[in-house]
């Protein structure tokens, strides 16, 4: 036995001891023997893609267009169950045709800098630079294949105009394009058939293929991948259980949302069979805006539309606790210090009406299915959405401390007059809050929607093995890639990265080298 194999085995034992194996599904536990190849392959293709979200479908189309044979395995029963489908349709990109049309100044270096800076310099350079350089190219591919209407918008954390928003506020637009293109190319998606094993030739440090198992029939299929396997199996925020398992610091808290298949089981398969180390697993994107409607479920409130018009963020004591202009994910850690772990966006009727003039309910409350009637129901219920004629009534409904709120409003209004936020240095001091009301408020907890950890990759998206050397034939794309966002996710970068990394992985595995 070589020193190398000894070390790898020790690594695997350590991974099991730290709990990675403890949550393995029965399908995973049953096939824990590593092998370079099965007795017989059922199918041979150039590339196997695992995962049929934005990253996986984009990768499969690129493989096909570069004349490769490709199949996709997906744990869900439809690409419309993916996180990409659920997303708010914000996609950041440098060098896109839309940026050029709007003559927006930008450079890939500034984009990469913004990502690193927002993520507290905890990002990894390889995926960040690949993303920053090629995101426009990937977005243009979607646009050129019929993407629904979109526009550029300014977004917190991005110093230049590079956030592209779907008019629908829905990631469904991306999946519509990709599903159409997958069908046009007659690429087969094996739905309800998750990855259960990776075949790995340890001597050659090469992945040779995979096994996937149909959830309903238990039938296994073993596929040889001549050029490579692309892991595009999403993040770990699929269920409250998977989120709490991987990130115990959030256990039991806030709203959890994501594709329910995304539980990290594919990461565990790779850890077990190839020995790939995982990185950045403690970081998740947590927006300070989850409205807890039922258990850990609920929509989210794009509170910044209200604060842009003059609203403020308060805690249960009636006090502001942060500058409302702070980056969205940067606000979340402050919630832990608030009594009850929540906050409220607070405003008078003038500010509320001004915001409503510009945004539909579906845009304000990140659920397109919500309309005016649904919102009205919530106001009447008075549990998370508060509306009151007087401050006394508002505090009675919401549980906010009346004396604290009165003091805070007096201070805020004086500061607005002086154009100086003496508490937190906010600079857009637009309008005083009318102490006579009526008043509006929406109560929010952390909203955990995507994860930032997974495989470490090279600048060609090749997965690093136990010895931090690239594993031949193993690539990663989308939310399975570690270190894109560092410690904090900045809006639009996850959807942007998913499609860009899928686009690049598909081309790289087929021979593209100019990254
Ligand atoms: C509600 C919500 C809103 C969001 N809004 C935005 C936004 O506006 N902008 C932004 O940048 N980001 C946003 N995000 C994050 C972003 O959507 C995702 O990070 C991105 O779409 C991930 O793409 P993906 O292809 O990696 O994963 P997915 O789209 O989730 O695809 C992964 C696929 O892998 C499959 N899978 C899982 N396990 C296995 C397995 N073992 N074997 C085979 N297949 C498997 C799943 O079935 C799934 O279809 C949002 C996320 C959510 C949940």
Shape: elongated
DSSP helical segment count = 18
At the fold tier of CATH, the topology name of the largest domain is FAD/NAD(P)-binding domain
Structural class of the secondary structure composition?
alpha/beta
Q: Segments where pLDDT lies below 50 for 5+ residues? A: 1-26
In CATH, the homologous superfamily of the largest domain goes by the name FAD/NAD(P)-binding domain
Instruction: Compute the number of strand runs.
Output: 19
Produce a short descriptive summary.
The chain is of the alpha/beta class and 515 residues long. It has helices at 3-17, 26-29, 54-65, 83-86, 97-101, 108-118, 125-144, 172-184, 240-246, 265-274, 303-308, 328-335, 349-358, 361-364, 372-381, 391-398, 402-418, 493-509; strands at 43-50, 70-73, 90-92, 150-153, 163-166, 188-190, 195-201, 206-213, 220-231, 255-256, 278-279, 284-290, 312-314, 343-348, 385-388, 439-451, 454-455, 462-464, 470-476.
Structural overview:
- By secondary structure, this protein is α/β, with parallel strands linked by helices.
- The protein folds into two domains: 3-283 and 452-509, FAD/NAD(P)-binding domain, CATH 3.50.50; 286-448, Alpha-Beta Complex (Flavocytochrome C3, Chain A, domain 1).
- The chain is built from 18 helices and 19 strands.
- It has helices spanning 3-17, 26-29, 54-65, 83-86, 97-101, 108-118, 125-144, 172-184, 240-246, 265-274, 303-308, 328-335, 349-358, 361-364, 372-381, 391-398, 402-418, 493-509, and strands spanning 43-50, 70-73, 90-92, 150-153, 163-166, 188-190, 195-201, 206-213, 220-231, 255-256, 278-279, 284-290, 312-314, 343-348, 385-388, 439-451, 454-455, 462-464, 470-476.
- The strands form four sheets. Strands 1, 2, 6, 7, 8, 9, 18 and 19 form an eight-stranded mixed β-sheet that branches. Strands 10, 12, 13, 14, 15 and 16 form a six-stranded mixed β-sheet that branches. It has a three-stranded antiparallel β-sheet with strand order 3-5-4.
- Helix 3 (54-65) packs parallel to helix 18 and helix 7 packs across helix 18 (493-509).
- The protein is elongated and about 75 Å long.
- The two termini are 38 Å apart.
- It binds flavin-adenine dinucleotide.
- The site of flavin-adenine dinucleotide (FAD) has 42 residues, from helix 3, helix 4, helix 10, strand 16 and helix 18.
């Amino acid at each position: 036995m070589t020193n190398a194999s000894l070390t790898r085995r020790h690594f695997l034992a350590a991974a099991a001891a730290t709990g990675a194996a403890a949550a393995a599904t029965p399908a995973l536990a049953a096939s824990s023997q590593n092998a370079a190849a099965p007795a017989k392959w059922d199918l041979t293709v150039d590339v196997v893609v695992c995962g049929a979200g934005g990253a996986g479908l984009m990768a499969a189309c690129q493989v096909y267009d570069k004349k490769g044979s490709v199949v996709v395995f997906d744990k869900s029963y439809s690409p419309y169950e993916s996180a990409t489908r659920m997303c708010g349709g914000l996609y950041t990109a440098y060098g896109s045709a839309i940026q050029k049309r709007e003559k927006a100044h930008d450079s890939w270096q500034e984009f990469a800098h913004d990502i690193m800076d927002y993520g507290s310099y905890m990002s990894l350079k390889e995926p960040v630079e690949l993303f920053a350089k090629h995101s426009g190219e990937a977005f243009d591919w979607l646009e050129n294949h019929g993407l629904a209407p979109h526009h550029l918008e300014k977004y917190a954390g991005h110093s230049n105009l590079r956030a592209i928003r779907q008019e629908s506020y829905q990631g469904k637009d991306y999946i519509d394009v990709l599903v159409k293109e997958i069908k046009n190319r007659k690429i087969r998606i094996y739905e309800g058939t998750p990855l259960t094993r990776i075949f790995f030739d340890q001597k050659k440090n090469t992945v040779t293929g995979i096994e996937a198992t149909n959830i309903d029939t238990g039938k296994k299929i073993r596929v040889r991948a001549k050029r490579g396997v692309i892991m595009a199996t999403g993040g770990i925020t699929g269920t409250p259980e998977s989120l709490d398992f991987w990130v115990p610091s959030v256990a039991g808290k806030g709203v959890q949302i994501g594709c329910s298949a995304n539980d990290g089981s594919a990461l565990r398969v790779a850890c077990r069979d190839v020995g790939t180390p995982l990185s950045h697993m403690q970081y998740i994107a947590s927006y300070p805006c989850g409205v807890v409607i039922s258990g850990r479920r609920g929509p989210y409130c794009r509170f910044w539309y209200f604060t842009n018009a003059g609203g403020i963020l308060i805690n249960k004591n009636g006090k502001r606790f942060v500058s409302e202009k702070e980056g969205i994910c940067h606000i979340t850690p402050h919630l832990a210090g608030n009594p009850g772990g929540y906050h409220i966006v607070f405003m008078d009727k003038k500010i509320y009406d001004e915001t409503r003039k510009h945004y539909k309910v579906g845009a304000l409350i990140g659920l397109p299915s919500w309309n005016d009637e649904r919102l009205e129901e919530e106001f009447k219920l008075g549990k998370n959405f508060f509306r009151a004629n007087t401050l006394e009534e508002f505090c009675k409904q919401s549980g906010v401390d009346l004396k604290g709120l009165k003091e805070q409003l007096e201070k805020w209004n004086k500061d607005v007059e002086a154009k100086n936020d003496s508490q937190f240095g906010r600079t857009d001091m637009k309008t005083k809050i009318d102490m006579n009301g009526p008043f509006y408020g929406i109560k929010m907890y952390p909203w955990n929607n995507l994860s930032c950890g997974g495989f470490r990759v090279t600048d060609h998206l090749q997965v690093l093995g136990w010895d931090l050397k690239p594993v031949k034939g193993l690539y990663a794309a989308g939310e399975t890639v570690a270190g894109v966002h560092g410690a904090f996710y900045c809006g639009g970068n996850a959807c942007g990265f998913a499609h860009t990394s899928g686009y690049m992985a598909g081309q790289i595995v087929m021979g593209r080298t100019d990254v």
